[in-house]
Amino acid sequence: MKPIFFTPGPSQLYPTVENYIHDALEKSIPSWPHRSEDFKGIFRDAADGVRKVMDAPKETHVFFLGSGTEAMERTVQNMAEKRSFHFVNGSFSKRLFKTASQLGKQPEKIEASPGQPFDFSKANISNETELLCFTHNETSVGIKTPMEGISKIKKEHPHALVAVDVVSSAPCVDVDWDAVDCAFFSVQKCFGLPAGLGVIMVNESAMQKAKVLQEKGVSIGSFHSFLSMAEEEAKSQTPETPNVLTMYLLGKVCEDFQKIGIDAIKKEPKEKAALLYDYFDAHPVHKPFVDEAEVRSDTVIVAKTPQGSKPLISKLKEKGLVIGAGYSDYKDSQIRIANFPAHGMKDMKHLLDEMSKL
Ligand SMILES: *Cc1c(COP(=O)(O)O)cnc(C)c1O
C-alpha cells in the first residue's frame, strides 16, 4: 500500500491529480509549445481558477513563477525601493526579511517569541515604510497571523503596500483584498500538486509601484519583474518556458475545488484541525507548540516531542503514515502534520487512531 504523506510540502497529492497527470500525458501536454493557442487555454484556466478559488477581484494579475521562495524575492524587489517592514515569527518570515537585506533594501521588523502571536501595538512602523510583509501561516512552527490583524495594520498605515505569504494556507484562507496588494503561494502545499510552480497575485497599486521603481532606475528584476510578467500575461503567456504540466494540473484542481465549493474546502481543514488539537491538548507529552487557540494554524499542526521526534515519526512510517519533523532547530523537538484538502477526514482519523495506539 502507498504511504499517506502528512508532510507539510511536498505533501499528499490531491486525489484527482493522478488521473489528471495521465490525461495530460494522453494529450501530450508536456510537448505543447508555450506560445501556442492551446497553451494560452491552459494559462487562462489556471489564472481564472486561481482568481476564483482565492475570491480575488477579476482585475487581479496572476503571475506564474518557479516557487514560493522566488515569489518572496519578486515581491520585495517590485514593491519596495528601500523600506520594507516584516512581521517575523518563524523561519519563512525570517527568510523574507533576509531576502530584502540581500537585495540591498533596508528592512525593519518586529519579531514575536517562538509560538507567540504578535503584539501589534509594539510594531514600530515608520511613515517611510513602503511595504508591510506578513506570513499568514508560518509553516515552520504552525502559527497563523489572522487576516483581521493584517487588515487592521493596513488601515493604520494606508500608504504602505501589503504583501502576504499565503504559501501554506492558500486557498484555505480568506484574503482581504481591500487590504492586501500582493499574495503569493506555491502549489505543493494546500493545492496538493507536485512542486515547481509559484503564483503571485497582485493589484494595480503593486503594479504602479513596480513602474515607479523602474522609472527611478531601481532594479525590479529581469524576466520575472511584475512588468515583464504583466506584458506576457496580456497574451496569456509567460516570459520563459513555464511548468506547463503543473499549470494544467492547477487549473484542473481549481475546477475541482469550485465543484465541491470553496467554502467547504476552507471549512474542512478547520474541522480536522480541531480533532488534532483536541488530541494533542489531551496528550500527556505531545502538547501543541502554540498555546493560544486563536492563532494555531489550521493547515500545519505542530506538537512538541520532548523525547525526540524520530521514534514517533518512524513508528508511524511503518504504518504507512508519513508525518513531518520539526523545522530546522526544532527538527527533533517537534513534529509537524500537514492538514490540507488532500487529507480526507478518514485519513486524519486513521492517523489519530494509529497515534493513540503508540
Ligand atoms: C513552503 C513555504 C515557502 C517556500 O515555498 P517553496 O515553494 O518551497 O519555495 C514559503 N513560505 C511558506 C510559509 C512556506 O510554507
Number of helices: 11
Beta-strand portion reads 15-25%
Shape: globular
The span between the termini is: 21 Å
* Structural class based on helices, strands and sheet pairing: alpha/beta
Name the ligand types.
Answer: pyridoxal-5'-phosphate
Low-confidence sequence ranges: none
Count of DSSP strands: 13
What's the gyration radius in Å? Answer: 20 Å
Q: Strand order, biggest sheet?
A: 2-10-9-8-5-3-4
- Binned, the helix content reads 25-40%
Mean pLDDT: 98
Main β sheet profile: 7 strands, mixed
Task: Sketch the topology as an H/E string, one letter per element.
Answer: EHHEHEHEEEEHEEEHHHHEHEEH
List keywords for this structure.
binds pyridoxal-5'-phosphate, seven-stranded mixed β-sheet, 16% strand, 40% helix, single chain, alpha/beta, 358 residues
Care to describe what's here?
- The two termini are 21 Å apart.
- α1 (17-26) packs across α8 (244-260), α3 packs across α4 and α8 packs across α9 (262-282).
- It is globular, with a radius of gyration of 20 Å.
- Strands 2-10-9-8-5-3-4 form a seven-stranded mixed beta sheet, sandwiched between helices. Strands 1-12-13-11 form a four-stranded mixed beta sheet, covered by helices on one side. A two-stranded antiparallel ribbon has the order 6-7.
- It is α/β, with parallel strands linked by helices and 358 residues long.
- The mean pLDDT is 98.
- The protein has helices spanning 17-26, 37-53, 68-79, 91-102, 147-156, 204-216, 226-233, 244-260, 262-282, 310-318, 345-357; strands spanning 4-6, 61-65, 84-88, 108-111, 131-135, 137-138, 143-144, 161-165, 182-186, 198-202, 300-304, 321-325, 334-338.
- It is built from eleven helices and 13 strands.
- Bound molecules: pyridoxal-5'-phosphate.
- Pyridoxal-5'-phosphate is lined by residues 9, 67-69, 92, 135, 137, 139, 165, 167-168, 186, 198.
- The site of pyridoxal-5'-phosphate (PLP) has 13 residues, from α3.
